[in-house]
Amino acid sequence: MTTTAAQPAWAERLTGIDLTELVDRAPLMTRVDRKYLIDAACLPPIVDALAADPDSRTRVLEIEGRRTFSYRSSYLDTPRLTTWYAAARGRRRRFKARVRDYCDTGQRWLEVKTRGPRGTSVKRRIAVVGQQERLGPEQTRFVAEVLATERIDPALADELQPSLVTTYRRTTLHHHDAVRECRITLDSDLGFTSPAGVTRSAPGLVVVEVKAGPSPMPVEHLLWRHGHRPITTSKYGVGMVWTHPELPALKWRRALARHRCAATPTSQGAPS
Q: Which of 123, 146, 152, 256 is the most exposed place for a label (fewest CB within 10 A)?
């Protein structure tokens, strides 16, 4: 089943780029991610500044006239929350597994993210057919092979089960300077649902993620001038704490506070 995401007005202010060119110029399956949390109301002047750039260094992904797309990610973890705790404690050898739905096209992918050298993220993925939430033999084998390659216990793949669903709308930008290119994703209308049915949402917040190399891009200098600094955050990390009050906030405490400030009144969780 496919859905069509509503398109924010600011997405119309930039020149479009098609998917083929974006993938060719900025594939970035291995990259350094820097994240920013921005109130949705603060985003338009930042986009205006990008659109006014005389060098036209920023373009927005456009597919069949659409510039904003609906995503759904079903995260997988062990009953002991092995992947969540490894991320929360900053373990060097850790991974994240999820089934991602591209709701506008009906595509599904099983994605496994691991840590590369010098703080990079490495993503591997395979297409998934069907709507099952749990992994089948082929998907389990794929995860195990990735873990073995990264010297992580491959037996963990057999324990994975659904642990959190996140939903959001994504707009993707292509950005460059004289020698470097990157992707920037802007995720809005964030929603989180636990297997027990606990739901939280932060519609007033946008997660801006710069997927680039180790050095800041020009767009990040623009964000800094507007008072925005990188923050340690993770949809899975924050979403798990917010929907599971028994979990400690740990390194996501600041990000969790921002999500709660942007929450709908009925979506507030108990403090942790």
A: 123
* Separation between Cα atoms, residue 249 and residue 252, nearest integer Å: 5
Strand partners, 101: 72, 108
**Burial class (CB within 10 angstroms; exposed 0-12, middle 13-18, buried 19+) of 24:** exposed
Rounded percentage of the chain residues whose pLDDT exceeds 70? 93
**Topology adopted by domain 9-267:** Hypothetical Protein Pfu-838710-001 (2.40.320)
Whole-prediction pTM value?
Answer: 0.89
How many angstroms separate the CA atoms of 6 and 40, rounded? 15
> Residue 53's CB: how many other CB atoms inside 10 A?
14
Which residues lie closer than 8 Å to 61 by C-beta, 6 or more apart? Answer: 16, 17, 18, 19, 22, 67, 171, 172, 173, 174
Which is it for strands 95-102 and 199-202: parallel, antiparallel or unpaired? unpaired
> How far is Cα 148 from Cα 95, in angstroms, rounded to an integer?
11
DSSP-derived pairing of the beta strands 58-61 and 15-17: parallel
Q: How far is CA 149 from the centre of its chain?
A: 24
Query: What residue has token string 């400030």?
Result: 261
Main-chain phi, psi angles of 53, to 5 degrees: -60, 120
Distance CA 30, CA 113 (A): 10
Mean of the per-residue pLDDT values of the chain: 90
CB contact at 8 A, 209 and 255: no
- Read off the tokens for 242: 């917010």
